[in-house]
Design a protein that fits this description.
Elements (H helix, E strand, L loop, with lengths): L1 H25 L4 H14 L4 H13 L5 H16 L7 H15 L6 H18 L6 H17 L5 H16 L3
């Protein structure tokens, strides 16, 4: 029993060490360096939402290596996060927003499907991230939704751009 307690304490300490190392790089915007310690932290504690989100964002923001693989890994992480957070919660909305960013930046596959999936994710995030309850996050999701519409590779270009402008205009109500 005492040995099990020591092992559990060592696991907590290892998790914290990896998370802090990831945070060090993450908050310096050195996302490529943040990935490895966050991956190790998540391996130890796969249900820790903050580490999962920071790891996913690091994969979205990575600039080295296989960019498509980084974005795909972010999608997998965020999809996994959606399975462990309560639907409609603040964490769910944050994850939807992050998932939308991953889909919007996925450089391979069916780009129309990628952007439509991103638009759907941002729209779901906005169900929770309302102007009255989470104004700054609402503006961020509106801006991200505008980016997805602006960069959508198919459809009526003028309508896509107008929709993007409408999203940006809403975001400017706060920012």
């Amino acid at each position: 029993d005492q040995l099990a307690q020591l092992d559990a304490q060592a696991e907590v300490e290892d998790y914290k060490r990896f998370e802090l190392r990831g945070d060090y790089y993450y908050f310096r915007s050195d996302f490529d360096q943040a990935i490895e310690p966050y991956e190790r932290a998540m391996a130890l504690r796969p249900n820790e939402i903050t580490a999962r989100n920071n790891l996913g964002i690091s994969h979205i923001s990575a600039r080295l290596g296989d960019i498509a693989a980084h974005r795909s890994r972010a999608i997998d992480i965020f999809n996994g996060t959606l399975k462990i957070v309560r639907t409609g919660s603040h964490e769910w909305a944050t994850t939807q927003n992050n998932l939308g960013n991953a889909w919007a930046q996925l450089p391979n596959g069916n780009l129309e499907k990628n952007f439509q999936t991103a638009i759907d994710c941002f729209t779901r995030a906005l169900e929770v991230r309302t102007k009255s309850t989470f104004p700054a996050e609402w503006a961020t999701s509106q801006n991200n939704l505008g980016n997805a519409w602006q960069n959508r590779p198919t459809g009526d270009r003028a309508k896509n751009v107008q929709t993007a402008i409408d999203c940006y205009t809403r975001a400017l109500e706060i920012r």
